[in-house]
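Let's do one together. I've listed all components of the complex below, 541 residues spread over two lines.
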Amino acid sequence: MGRFVMNARENLVQQALEGLEVSDGDLVRLNRDPDFVTRAEPARDEVAVVSGGGSGHEPLHTGFVGRGMLHAAVPGDVFASPTALQVRAAIEATDTGRGTVLIIKNYTGDVLNFSIAADLLSNTHTVETVLVDDDLATSSEEEGGPGRRGTAAVVVTEKVCGAAAAEAGASVDRVRDLGRKVVSRSATLGMSFRAPTNPLTGLRSFELEEGEVEFGVGIHGERGIETRRPSGEAADLVESLASPLVEALGLDRGAPVLAVVNGLGATHGLELSVAAFELRRFLEGKGLSLERTLVGPYVTSLDMKGFSITLTALDDELTELWDAPVHTPALR
Amino acid sequence: MTDTGDTARLSGPDARAWFLAFADRISRGADDLTDLDRRAGDGDFGWNIDTSLGRARSALQDIDAVHPAEVFGTVSDTFLASGGTSGPLFGLWFGRVAHGPEEPWTVADLAMAFDTATAAVQRLGGAQVGQKTMVDAMAPAVQALAGTARPGWREALGEAAEAASAGADSTGGMVARKGRASYLGERAADVVDPGALSIAWFFASAADV
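Okay, and this is what the predicted structure of the assembly comes out as:
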């Protein structure tokens, strides 16, 4: 037998979705064929915030469906985009007449399928999009290239958009603009001690020698930008991730910051807390003010051992939306 | 056979018969499409399109097909349920065509529907004419429909089919800039794009209605 709790390959995602209804049926409903997850109690009169993407990143996105965050999440197969048919059905099911904001991580398949769904509804629905492309490791000057990947900043985007949508009378343009504002003020870097294992083959997507870490990894088991041999001190690991983020975001002394210290699947809470401790020390050393944090496994890559750090430059508006009530399976 | 007694307008049953003929053509040619894709891409194209059209074939039995929009919408859904890139883009194309009027279509309706649909594929797929994609057959067909003087849909679609076929042939001399075939560049330059060929077969299938 393999080392994953799973039955047949073709049932993996569907059975996991049914399991979410078992654990959180008071919060979410599973729609079958096409598959998507909505709130158990639909919103009556607010802009719908819909996201989705490949499975294998749980609790993203299905775990963020609920009051104050997503109205629907559309899961694809493991590391594969949902279909345009699923996305279209989720939009149709949750649009209250106030319009929809789609939050899309920047991957070719996701962008294509979400855009097609939006395009085909353009004569009957108002659909706006927020593209999340926070992964600093994939920055490139290349003209016409795929651009940066979308990773853990998507959680901040979903939280802020969901909170904005819950405000009385918020328009689809306001929710979209706030999502884009989060993206423009966020950056992420991740590192891995051990690659994720393919549930089918039992093989890791890359191998590392003792003492090596992969720097600049994404969330699909792809190699990062560099294999490094760090000192082994937590402070060094955290600084190697956080320092380029501070520079890229142009954070000045005194700037208020939100940090997501994200476990990538097999990193223990004890370790993530050490990373959070070191991150605060690092940011204080730079004169930055760590005002809000989210620490835990929120955007995972199957069983990858490693973590990522996301920094978002806050202002009063974003802080207020971050603090707004939320009640979802994974964040409450 | 058209049951409207109107040779100028494409009826719902005409559109259904067109797709059933197209599904037959793809079934006969699936191996050829797969072979082209194996030489220029990842080799699953023929199987994917055949599967989508197989689902479309049964879905089309379950609808009234009162107008072409309903038929195109039904076929679109079967492509939108597929993965990869070509399937969703076919779904977009047929789905945009389905935005046409909810009554039998004139040649002008056809021209308008395929024009907006092809524009959507170019916009979201990011491909222009000359990049060895399905757009190389779609765009000439749109031009033919826009410029035709023929008042009947059969004749107009016949002209579109000729234009699409010439467009598909032209991909046999192109270096891919988009899609899977772009990874092979010059090495796949002489291979006709299977997406463009499928579009040419689609327009040609109208003659079998």
